Amino acid sequence: MFGPRQILQSRLRYAATKCQLISRPIVRGSRHASTNTNPTTHGVTPEPSRWPRRLIYAGIFGGLGLAAGKWMDNKLAVPPFPGTGEDERKMEEIRRTFEHGLPIVKQLREDPDYREADVYGNYLEEELRQRITSGPLRGSRGLAMQKVFWNDKEKKAVNVVFLGSGTEGWPTIVHGGLLGTILDEHLARVAIQNLPERTGVTANLDINYRGLVYSGNFYTIYATLDQERSTDRKAYVTGEIRDPLGKLCVQASGLFVVPRGYKLRKIGDTY
């Protein structure tokens, strides 16, 4: 007669034996095994070499790395000085893209309600060099090109502008302060066109940044007069910056006034 201890030991031996049987690999021989089987492989199919695949991957990623490095070198390189041969070549490329590569330009030119004009048409060359956006920021490195399309019926203007690498704050990212300056000027254009004095100053400018603006590309700046709130001495204007695909990057609103007791120069009709 077995006691509790003997029963427990018997069960443990049985469990151990069962585990050993389960863990052993089952090997079955074949009666019809061919004697011509390759003795070096023992019936196991050899794996294909991985070296060709590795070489292909190395070539692909190496090429991508070189392309990315060249792109980054171009982005981090010192931009050409205005008036140099390199600057003129880049300016010609920018003008060609504006004329033939921007759907927004084609669309605005086909709309009879819009009138196209160059910026700063009322300024002399000496005056242009003293202004921040037409002086230090001239050339392919800065505000390489600005064209304004004015819609008098809707009291709105569209500015198509190229932002060069000299406008950056962080590498490849346009400085937020510069975007504020561009918006300030463009909203003021709409305000001044609707102030009888044809001049004014910025009283308030509110800006909300919605997305990154990258250098080396064209952007479209919109501005519209709030006709219900505006008067002969105050102009309320809203605006925004959009990228080439129409994505919203920056929103703004501003108040522009004609100061009392201080005579300002009239800007005129060509911005």
What does this structure look like?
This is Thioesterase domain-containing protein. Residues 173-244 form the Thioesterase domain. Pfam families: 4HBT (PF03061). The protein is an alpha+beta fold and 271 residues long. Helices cover 35% and strands 24% of the residues. It has helices spanning 4-23, 51-76, 85-100, 103-110, 125-130, 176-193, and strands at 114-118, 143-151, 156-163, 168-170, 173-174, 201-209, 217-225, 234-242, 248-257. It has 6 helices and 9 strands, in the order ααααβαββββαββββ. The radius of gyration is 36 Å and the shape is elongated. It has a domain at 81-255: Thiol Ester Dehydrase, Chain A. The strands form 2 sheets. The chain has a 7-stranded antiparallel sheet with strand order 1-2-3-7-8-9-6, with helices on both faces. The protein has a two-stranded antiparallel ribbon with strand order 4-5. It starts with a helix and ends in a 14-residue tail after the last strand. The model is unreliable at 21-37 (pLDDT under 50).
Keywords:
35% helix; alpha+beta; Thiol Ester Dehydrase, Chain A; Thioesterase domain-containing protein; two-stranded antiparallel ribbon; Thioestr_dom; 271 residues; PTE-AB_protein; HotDog_dom_sf; elongated; single chain; 7-stranded antiparallel sheet
